[in-house]
Design a protein that fits this description.
With about 300 residues, the protein is an all-alpha fold. The protein contains 13 helices and two strands. It has helices at about 5-50, 50-55, 60-85, 90-125, 130-135, 135-165, 165-170, 180, 185-215, 220-245, 245-255, 260-285, 290-300, and strands at about 90, 175. Helix 3 packs antiparallel against helix 4 (about 90-125) and helix 10 (about 220-245) packs antiparallel against helix 12. The longest helix has about 45 residues, at about 5-50.
C-alpha cells in the first residue's frame, strides 16, 4: 500500500475532526443536562419561597437546601468539565476557587440525606414530639452544622497547600482536580479519613432509621411505609454519592480493562457521579410529595405571580 504525506495529513485531519466533534458533543450534552436540571431545581426553589407552608416545615427546608446545594455543585462541576476540555490546564488559584465549592457541596449531600432520614424517623416513630424537635429554627441550625462539618474537612487543605507548596506551584497551571491541587500526602490521607468517617456515620444513620421505621410500618401505617421507601431512596442516592469517593480506583480499574478508552470512561463517570444524583433529587423528594407537587406544577412551565399560601 502506498503511503504519502498527503494521505497522512488527511488521516490526521479526520482524527482531529472526530476528536473535535466528540468533545463538542460531550460538552453540549453536559451543558444541556445541566441547564435542564438547574431549571427544575430553580423552579423548586421558587416554589418553596412563594409559599409559607414550606418555609416553616423542617422536611421542606432540608429538601430545598439539598436542591440549592445540588445547584452549586452542578454549576462548579460543569464549569470544571468545560474548562478541562477547553484549556486542559488552568492556574492553581482559579482551580482552587472551583474545587473548594465543588468539594464542599459534595460532602454536604450525604450529610443532608442523613438528617432527612432522621427527620423521617422522628415524624414516624416520635410523632408527638415532632413539632417540638423539628422546628424551622433548629432545621437552619442543622444546615449550619452541615456546612461547618464540610468546611472543617476541606479548609485545612488550603492551609496545608499554602504551608507545603512553593510559590511557583501556586502560579503554575495544572489539570484541575482536587488531588492535583491538594496533592500533599497529609491532604490525601485526611481526605480518605474524612470520606470514611462521613460515610460510616451516614450509613449507620440510614440503617438505624430504616429498621426502626420498618417495625412501625408492619402495623400498616401508610406514612411509615412511605417514610421507609424514602429512606431506601436516600440509600440509593448515597450509593451514587459514594461513586465520587471511589472514582480514582474505578478509573484505574477501567484503564486496566480498557486502556484506550480513558476519555470515554471519564465522561461516563462524570455523568454517573455528577449529573445523575442531581437528576434524582428533584424526582425523589419533590415530585413524590403531593403537597409540593401541587404547587410545583404551577411554576414548572411559566413562573407566574400566583398568590402565596
Amino acid at each position: 500500500m502506498n503511503f504519502t504525506p498527503e494521505a497522512n495529513n488527511l488521516t490526521e485531519a479526520v482524527n482531529y475532526l472526530d476528536t473535535l466533534i466528540t468533545a463538542v458533543g460531550r460538552n453540549v450534552t453536559v451543558v444541556v443536562l445541566g441547564i435542564a436540571i438547574s431549571y427544575i431545581n430553580a423552579t423548586m426553589v421558587h416554589t418553596f419561597n412563594k409559599h409559607h407552608i414550606f418555609r416553616v416545615n423542617a422536611r421542606y427546608i432540608l429538601f430545598i437546601h439539598l436542591v440549592f446545594n445540588d445547584m452549586i455543585q452542578l454549576t462548579t462541576s460543569i464549569s470544571l468539565f468545560i474548562f478541562t476540555y477547553a484549556f486542559h490546564t488552568i492556574y492553581v488559584s482559579i482551580c482552587c476557587l472551583l474545587v473548594l465549592p465543588a468539594t464542599l457541596t459534595t460532602l454536604n449531600t450525604p450529610l443532608n440525606l442523613a438528617f432527612m432520614a432522621a427527620e423521617c424517623y422522628i415524624a414516624v416513630c416520635v410523632p408527638l414530639r415532632y413539632n417540638y424537635i423539628c422546628t424551622a429554627k433548629r432545621t437552619y441550625i442543622v444546615i449550619g452544622i452541615i456546612w461547618a462539618m464540610s468546611s472543617l474537612s476541606v479548609l485545612p487543605d488550603v492551609f496545608i497547600l499554602l504551608a507545603t507548596e512553593p510559590l511557583e506551584f501556586l502560579n503554575s497551571r495544572v489539570y484541575c482536580s482536587r488531588d492535583t491541587v491538594f496533592r500533599s500526602t497529609y491532604s490525601l490521607k485526611k481526605r480518605d479519613t474524612s470520606h470514611i468517617v462521613f460515610l460510616v456515620v451516614v450509613w449507620l444513620t440510614l440503617f438505624y432509621t430504616y429498621f426502626r421505621i420498618l417495625f412501625v410500618a408492619k402495623a400498616a401505617n401508610a406514612d411509615a411505609k412511605k417514610a421507609r421507601n424514602t429512606i431506601l431512596l436516600h440509600g440509593f442516592q448515597v450509593l451514587l454519592c459514594m461513586m465520587v469517593y471511589v472514582q480514582p480506583m474505578l478509573i484505574q480499574a477501567f484503564i486496566y480493562l480498557f486502556p484506550r478508552g480513558l476519555s470515554s470512561i471519564a465522561f461516563l463517570l462524570f455523568i454517573i457521579n455528577q449529573i445523575l444524583p442531581r437528576f434524582v433529587s428533584p424526582i425523589v423528594y419533590g415530585l413524590r410529595d403531593r403537597t409540593f407537587r401541587k404547587y410545583f406544577k404551577r411554576y414548572l412551565c411559566t413562573l407566574n405571580n400566583t398568590p402565596s399560601v
